[in-house]
Each structure stands twice: as structure tokens, then as C-alpha cells.
Amino acid sequence: MRQVRRLRLVGASGAVPRARDFTRQALQDWGWLPAATADQRAAAEDVLLVVSELVTNACLHADGPEELRIGTGAKVLRLEIVDLGAGAPAPRTPHRAGRPGGHGMFIVQRLCLDWGVVRNPDGTGKTVWAELAAPN
């Protein structure tokens, strides 16, 4: 059974903490938190970090996020950030760990099973999505 939560973020101040708080509440409602094991805690922390990175990218590069969608199934949690930006996120290459900034999509790539970008059908903006494994 798939469950989906949506948070409108158009023009919201403090979009990153709002998105993180919304996601934390969804994880609590779905039984991911409070975590019973270290692996479950790490999985929940990964989800919160990816939400923070994707929403931050939308704030920095796309005039802010429009909406956050979180969907959960038996084995995968899917995050979607909708924005009106024309650009497509990509990890910086080569990745230089010592350089400040530019690590967001590298982090997303490392933590997620998969991620990608889908252009909105009307031609304005995009949805950046990421999928993470559900904790065992």
C-alpha cells in the first residue's frame, strides 16, 4: 500500500526546516521514527538529509520549491521536489571533498537507490525525485 504526503512550499519562508519537519512527522506516522535500531535511525537520517539537500538546491537554483511530495511503499521511500527552474541538478565532477559548497547532489547520489529529473508537462519547471530504501 502506497501512502503519499504533500507540502506546498510556494513562497514559504524557511522552506528547508519546514520540509524537514514535515518529513520527520511523516516518518513518525509511518513508524520509521522513533527508530528501534541503529540501521533504522540511519535510514531516517538519510531521508531527512536528502530532503534538506533537494529543497536547498531548489532555493538556491530555482527560485524556491513549489511542493514536496513523500511517498512510501513496502521497500522504497520516494521524495519529489517540484520547482519552476529550468536547470537540471547534477553532481559536480570531479567531486572535491575539501572544496566548500557543491556537495548536495553528490550526497543525494551516494545515499539514494536512484534519483532523476522529470520536466513538468507544461514545459515550466521540473520534478527532482529521489528514492531511498525503507529500513528493514
Automatic annotation (TrEMBL):
The keyword ATP-binding applies. It comes from the Bacteria. GO terms for molecular function: ATP binding; protein serine/threonine kinase activity. Residues 15-129 form the Histidine kinase/HSP90-like ATPase domain. InterPro entries: Anti-sigma-factor_SerPK (IPR050267), HATPase_C_sf (IPR036890), HATPase_dom (IPR003594). Keywords: ATP-binding, Kinase, Nucleotide-binding, Serine/threonine-protein kinase, Transferase. This is ATP-binding protein. It comes from Streptomyces boncukensis.
